[in-house]
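Question:
When you can, review this sequence-structure pair and walk me through the tokens.
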Amino acid sequence: MTEQDDLRSVKKTLRREILAKRDALSIQQQEAAKKEITKKMLEHSWYREAEMVLAFAGYGSELRTDQILAEVLQAGKMLFLPKIVGDEMIFYRVKNLRELQVGYKGIREPQDGSEPFVYGRTVGASDAINEKILMLMPGVAFDMERRRMGYGKGFYDRFLADKPLLVSRTIGIAHACQLVEKVPCEETDIRPAHVIYV
């Protein structure tokens, strides 16, 4: 077994353990976490400054993000959500949450034909423009050094690999039970700029 195979085996075991803990959260704990993360996000300066928000529709025992998504739309900000197309993750604009349809692995996604997020054109290349964007990242596990472990397919790592300005405005959000001492990382794993636990 190579060193990389060993690392992936460790990740697989940790992923299973953390998902079991997250799946064990009660409905009451999920609801309390949803209210707390919504409050924290709406009060965050990066959210208040943002004109565009790249987010995700919470799935399974992930933090429930629907209230945040609704607030983004109500505030008149541009909302983009991910859609899996083959091995690629593409963000498309969503104007109404009722537009979402069940897609990859049962996750709600934007419909075909909506406006895609284009990094170069949408973000530009200056820090001033960069402050008008925010990305919320899901994950299975995070640690105090902002290391992140996803679900194993590398969608977010590949999407962010050539988008340094966007990386500087990313916030990972998670339940407190998803915090671990140290997330095993590969060179291609991208850390969010900030992580919020509830």
Remarks:
- The beta strands are 52-54, 78-85, 88-94, 101-102, 108-109, 133-137, 141-142, 148-149, 170-174, 194-197.
- Residues 3-197 form a domain with the Rossmann fold fold (CATH 3.40.50.10420).
- The radius of gyration is 16 Å.
- The mean pLDDT is 92.
